[in-house]
Amino acid sequence: MRNYEAVFVFRAEDELYNQGKQLVADELAKVGATIVKEEDMGNRELAYEIKSETRGHYHFFETQIPPEKLAGLDAAVRLMSPVLKYLFVKK
């Protein structure tokens, strides 16, 4: 298991943010990841328009993920409609 930090930008509406956060948490659990820390970073204006959105809700996860599962997780998150952008970084 490796430590990763991940930042997700969800759509700004509360119900889409909550739905997206739950989808990501479920997908992390599905690949055997452990969420070490989680932080709501709030609703912010985006520097540029993403998928016709000008605002996004940022959320931070610190996780432990098996490295071989990261590619599958990346593919699954890419298909989630509430997720505008995301980034996984090895800690």
- As for the CATH topology, it is Alpha-Beta Plaits
Shape: globular
Q: What's the CATH superfamily, by name?
A: Ribosomal protein S6/Translation elongation factor EF1B
Mean pLDDT: 93
Rg result: 13 Å
Spans of 5+ residues with little confidence (pLDDT < 50)?
none
Report the sheet with the most strands, covering strand number, pairing sense and barrel closure. 4 strands, antiparallel
Instruction: Tell me roughly what share of residues is in helical segments.
Output: 25-40%
Tell me the distance between the termini: 12 Å
Percent strand equals: over 45%
Q: Helix and strand string, N-terminal first?
A: EHEEHE
What would you say this structure looks like, in words?
By secondary structure, the chain is an alpha+beta fold. The protein has a single domain (2-90), classed as Alpha-Beta Plaits (2-Layer Sandwich), CATH 3.30.70. It contains two helices and four strands, in the order βαββαβ. Strands 2-3-1-4 form a four-stranded antiparallel β-sheet, with helices on one face. Strand 2 (34-50) and strand 3 form a beta hairpin. The longest helix has 17 residues, at 14-30. It is globular and about 35 Å long. The chain starts with a strand and ends with a strand. The mean pLDDT is 93.
